[in-house]
Amino acid sequence: MTHRVHVLPPAAFDRPHVETRPDVIASFLTDAAHVAGGYAAGVAFPDSAAGVSALVASARHVLPIGAQSSLTGGATPRGELLLSTRNLTGVSVTAGAAVRVGAGVPLADLQRELTARGLYYPPVPTFDGAFVGGTVATNAAGAATFKYGSTRAWVEEIAVVLSDGSRLEIHRGETTASPDGWFELAYPSGRVVRIPVPSYRMPDVPKLSAGYYARPGMDLIDLFIGSEGTLGVVTGAVLRVIPLPRRAVVLVTCDSEGQAFAVTAALRREAARSRRGDGPLEVAAIEYVDSRTLTRLPDEAFRRAGLARPPRSAALLLAQLETAGDDTAALDRLGATLDACGVRTDPSVALPGDERQATRLLELREEVPAAVNAEIAAAKARVHPDIEKTAGDLVVPFERLQESVALYRDTFERYGVDYALWGHVSDGNLHPNVVPHSLDDMHRGRRALLDIARGVMAMGGAPLAEHGVGRSALKQLLLRELYGERGIEDMRAVKRALDPAWKLAPGVIFPE
Ligand SMILES: Cc1cc2nc3c(=O)[nH]c(=O)nc-3n(C[C@H](O)[C@H](O)[C@H](O)COP(=O)(O)OP(=O)(O)OC[C@H]3O[C@@H](n4cnc5c(N)ncnc54)[C@H](O)[C@@H]3O)c2cc1C
Description:
Distance between the termini: 33 Å
CATH topology of the largest domain: Uridine Diphospho-n-acetylenolpyruvylglucosamine Reductase, domain 3
Number of domains: 2
Strand content: 15-25%
Largest sheet: 8 strands, antiparallel
CATH architecture of the largest domain: 2-Layer Sandwich
Bound molecules: flavin-adenine dinucleotide
Structural class: alpha+beta
Number of helices: 14
CATH class of the largest domain: Alpha Beta
Radius of gyration: 23 Å
């Protein structure tokens, strides 16, 4: 184990072509946060790490982008050269349970390749069009984080291009921080750059995408995972994979929110028992959609899922079970658990192998952000062009879930804003979304989210669970609330060491 890593020189390679035609650039000027006003100096599509190296070495400001599914404006350019990773392809399953994959591979493609070999990559976000590089850059998490953790836990190696075009290959377990908190990069010229590990303490939550990772004795790979393009361009990774689980998808209609949370707690207990070898009901993920959100879904969404529209006060849970072969024992145990919680409606079940029904149920969950985003887009078009998505990405220790939801509801009501609530309930990670009907609603919603974030931090939670910080002014403010100005300064010190010219993703995570 060492605290020093050797840097490879920039590749001797021709600079890839930079596309400057406005009609080509136009399709890369926004991400899923739909923030207006993106502009870029050009866009390039390198197809190798050497191409990335040559491009970065010669550019003034670079914004790496994947699928631009960022919900934080982190993949919306502000004048930089866009480095699209979409041609960094290639998937090869290596010996042992791992896959070597290019940064530009969409998760859906990766999963397809793995499924064909009976393998699976677990820590995927809800949006499976995201690229591998983007998910590493944001330490993405998702529903199954409950069982499997977030992206960080699955990344064994990364290949990174630094801001001067030089390259790093980082293998987990090889380079750790010194006891007094630094790493060193040794350049071929003999120059040594010291990188200080930030001194703040990260909250103890199952998922966190809140600036740079920092822990005593940490692994260098963890500094880059979750750094949102600000420290280097990830060109490829080696990810751990597992044998494809036998998955059943179950949709449970609950009479009330209280019942939904009681079912979630009971299923979490069943999962804990199963992991101790003491029960048949393994649960990988539980998603929640509250009654306010369900009323926003069109009838058609329920029809497509093969369901009747639930009563107005109902809340939905969508659970992914892993049955290890004995489906009957798992489903019997599920039935008993639901009975014990007083659930009266039979669940809709997609048995292992019934991918068609599983997809129909999972698509209902997908309809939720789509419906809310459509309402916001309509308000933006009809009421005011500055209206934007305004959403929380909060995580609390599971024992504080009920209390946190009471906080969300009370705060939004106090500020008089409409909202919808859904998310990864098995992790205590919900997404309260403001549904603004005016620009003033949006501003009040932002103030409400700031109050909520403070309350969540007081519960031992975090206001930045999985989507990252990006260029969102609100999220950057939440990061400052979490770690204080000193914490942001610690991050700036890391950035200055690795990217003194502030070339990569400037203004992402924190302002210069
Ligand atoms: C419908 C929907 C559902 C979502 N659900 C989830 C969810 O469940 N969990 C979750 O975590 N997120 C979720 N997201 C957010 C988003 O999918 C993730 O943040 C994802 O990891 C972004 O990947 P991307 O390829 O789109 O990256 P982009 O959006 O293109 O980029 C995101 C950031 O990473 C940087 N970046 C991208 N590629 C690289 C690279 N190769 N090297 C260095 N930096 C890079 C960019 O500069 C930017 O700062 C959701 C988004 C949508 C639209």
